[in-house]
Design a protein that fits this description.
The chain has 13 helices and 13 strands. By secondary structure, it is an alpha/beta fold. It has two domains: 173 residues, Glycogen Phosphorylase B (Rossmann fold, 3-Layer(aba) Sandwich); 151 residues, Rossmann fold, CATH 3.40.50. The strands form two sheets. The chain has a seven-stranded parallel β-sheet, with helices on both faces. Helix 3 packs across helix 4. The two termini are 12 Å apart.
């Protein structure tokens, strides 16, 4: 089914690591339809490493400017100027992102119709800028975002992680690469996003409680996937130096296939949204230590029993089940219809 006319130029900006695996199938669909896709990536939070892992061709534009609100604003403006310079010669027909503020700003200035996907209703939006269309999970139907978009919202069933988890081909070689013992309980942990505008310091407290609790178990190995290589690595090594030496805590020194690691884990704990939802989509037990405002997607997964919220110190010991899980052969995961629904929405703009 061809939704789009050929020979369109589509600009996609990847400014955070979860965007890379999410957009890979969308990029593939657009290219199969005969369109040119220009990809820009921000050099932050393993975005570049993941883009290389997925063998994407991209323009590297801009970086992260830290946790301070003022620097975030300045950084958005600086990167917008850099993007404008980088993208001008390609003359995109449509711009698409999953929350890139710089893309929205540049698109507004240049008059490029833009599509904004999002799945967290509490993320801050840019004032006075109205993308043409928003695309969200159905559980955000009543999020109040319709007026932000010239053509309103389009919905998809399930969660955004359903778009790509079905493409996973489990590869156990990752266990050997990370030197993980087969008799150990493997826990994959993602620290809180302490530089995000929605960060709550309570998440950091829970992260320390969780690692200390799990490290007290001799039969546990933790793989901690850092968000900030410089500051988080130093903090973990300083606080749990003995466990790092003994490989009770493993911090990969390169970008790894997070989806594959999740599949081979006995359970997952994360201070952010995407890894929690990836685990939920793969039916791997998952615990959230995110303490920002709870979004509709997390409420939906919690109600379905696919996500456990850890909200207090007491919850760490009371709710986390430190045990191996039966890793049966991966069946059909994800929801292929989600990709079709997203492509149909995009097609409304460029058909």
């Amino acid at each position: 089914m061809s939704l789009l006319r050929p020979n369109k130029t589509i600009w996609i900006d990847l400014d955070n690591s979860p965007h890379v695996p999410f957009f890979v199938p969308i990029i593939g669909e657009l290219q199969k339809m005969g369109h040119s896709v220009v990809i820009t990536v921000r050099d932050t939070f393993q975005v570049v490493g993941l883009a290389d892992l997925y063998k994407l061709s991209y323009l590297k534009v801009g970086k992260h400017y830290g946790a301070l609100k003022l620097m975030k604003i300045i950084g958005t403006v600086i990167r917008s100027i850099q993007l404008a310079s980088a993208i001008r010669e390609y003359r995109p027909d449509v711009a698409i992102s999953h929350g890139s503020r710089s893309l929205q700003l540049v698109s507004s200035v240049f008059g490029i119709p833009s599509v904004l996907l999002f799945d967290y209703e509490f993320a801050r939006s840019l004032p006075f800028i109205r993308p043409v269309m928003g695309i969200v999970p159905e559980v955000l139907r009543d999020s109040g975002g319709t007026k932000r978009f010239k053509r309103g919202l389009r919905m998809y069933s399930g969660i955004k992680e359903d778009v790509y988890v079905s493409s996973l081909k489990p590869d156990s070689s990752i266990l050997k690469e990370l030197n993980i013992s087969s008799d150990k309980i493997l826990v994959t942990i993602r620290p809180p996003a302490n530089e995000a505008h929605y960060h709550n310091p309570e998440s950091d407290v829970l992260f320390f409680k969780v690692v200390s609790f799990l490290g007290a178990h001799d039969n546990v190995q933790m793989v901690i996937l850092l968000r900030n290589e410089k500051t988080q690595r130093a903090l973990i090594v300083r606080h749990w130096s003995e466990w790092v030496r003994d490989r009770r805590i493993i911090i990969p020194d390169r970008v790894v296939d997070g989806l594959n690691l999740i599949w081979h884990s006995d359970f997952v704990i994360s201070g952010g949204g995407t890894m929690n939802r990836e685990a939920a989509a793969l039916r791997v037990p998952v615990y959230s230590i995110f303490r920002g405002a709870t979004g509709a997607v997390d409420k939906y997964l919690t109600a379905k029993g696919r996500l456990v919220m850890i909200e207090t110190d007491e919850d760490v010991k009371r709710l986390i089940r430190v045990s191996k899980r039966d890793k049966v052969e991966k069946g059909a995961m994800g929801n292929g219809e989600v990709l079709n629904q997203i492509m149909a929405a995009i097609g409304e703009l460029i058909s």
